[in-house]
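The protein record filed here.
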Amino acid sequence: MFWQGRELEDFSSSEWEQLCDGCAKCCLNKLEDEDTEAVVFTRVACRLLDSENCRCTDYDKRHGLVPNCIQVTPAMARSALWLPDSCAYRLVAQGRDLPHWHPLLTGDINSTVAAGESVSGRVLSEEYVHPDGLDEHIITWVSV
């Protein structure tokens, strides 16, 4: 279990990518309250997200196509309160175990979707939502 007892900065690129559980919650548009700095999720996903399979349709070029695409870093895993409680990066940064449905434990790349822990079937593309209407799509994600 390569992720246990190591600093996040010591992970290879391949290990870092494997740690992602594929929930696609980081691919959602988020809103920040200017006064409190609280961040909330919307059910509006990046236009590049295949929302059924929770995969980016152009992963290698995503930063060029979507300039505000988020790349989770070790520092972000330690401090970004907007990362979901179930996020593997956040869990490992906190020294906690991965959830039983994580692909590294199940051996199945689709186990996050199968466990109902992803955005699959619960979001719509930003192509269909005006940016001024994002506040109409705020959602709270509850782990099952």
Notes: The chain has six helices and six strands. The chain has one domain: 8-139. The mean pLDDT is 92.
